[in-house]
Design brief:
The chain has 365 residues and is mainly beta. It folds into two domains: 3-60 and 332-358, no CATH class; 75-329, Porin (Beta Barrel). The protein is built from five helices and 16 strands. The protein has helices at 31-45, 49-54, 262-271, 335-342, 351-358, and strands spanning 3-6, 75-90, 97-99, 105-118, 123-137, 142-157, 160-161, 165-175, 194-205, 208-219, 225-237, 240-253, 284-297, 300-313, 315-330, 344-347. A hairpin with a 5-residue loop joins strand 10 and strand 11 (225-237). The chain is globular.
Amino acid sequence: MKSAIKVENGEFLKRIVPNGTLSFKKLSISDLRVLFMFFYRSLVSGLGMYTIIALLLTSHLVVAATPPKYKSGQLKGSLHAEYYSTDSNYDKAGGGFEKLPGENTFSFMSARPELVYGLSNDWGISGAFKYTYGQSENSSAQRTNSSITDIDGSIYYKLYKKKFYLLPQLHISFPLTTFDPNQDNTIINEGALKVEVGSWIEKKFLAHRFYAYLAYAYQGDGRAHLLPWEIGAYNSLGRLLYGFSALGNEVITDDELIASPQARSNRTDSLNGGSKKFYSVNPTEINLKGWVGARIAKNFIVYLKYKKSINGSNSANGQSIMAEIKWRILNPYSKKSIEETSGFKIDGINQDEQKALDNLPEVPE
């Protein structure tokens, strides 16, 4: 290391000397002043741009199932696991649900790893794939199926981030397994290309962050075009996090088999025990979801989530138990990254100030 950065005396970046002291005890000056002072000192001393960006210090926590959060150069990973089960369907009219015949059941377990990367402070991208194991049971047979079913990617842009947060996104999901009319195992995905264009909006109100999502979803293979939506709120209490939402979809353009839905239901009756979780004609649904989480380490958050359908038509009446782990893989805003990038050692930062370095804001101020 070239020199040491030391913090004391209530001032930030008071001076840089060859053997190095930079002083502050507490971040009490504005971010603009910090940026101006540090940019000037950095030009003189040769500190890198990562250090300039990183010392705009305020902190926030990432929360699952909310608008995606990213910063320039930051790479995050997540692993989402789900167990889903159903023994009934919502009827065509949407007025109630019907038990699957003969005490049939359908269930699946899935795992979905994902990476999110900030191309800049405004642009972000993500990529994921999904592995699913499904099982259906009826009075005469038990069918199973397992595969990597889909790969998907998204691109995000922070269109507005002052009084509220507006983030349009483009999401594309490509099926790796498609429906075969001659198959004799369980259907475990929709098996159709999906292109979704939508936008998140988020606003802090009464200590909570409220958000909404609305999109248009094109589906290939003659499937219905959908209107996915979600509204919810979340908050954090120290290391603990919690949130809740309502989500679902409506049909915009009819499925090509709207006049003869039995062409699909005949196959789901025999392969999925009659469940309309996948491969249904004009499905609509409304779900409720809640979650709790905890920051178990500096860069790790663990969530437990529960989702239950409450209404719908031509869709399954089911429930999901989910778990998720999120972690930062690359974080150019951490103390370690600043030291490695700039060649300067940072000494004497107290616990609160280190927490600010490690948890750069991920939602708009």
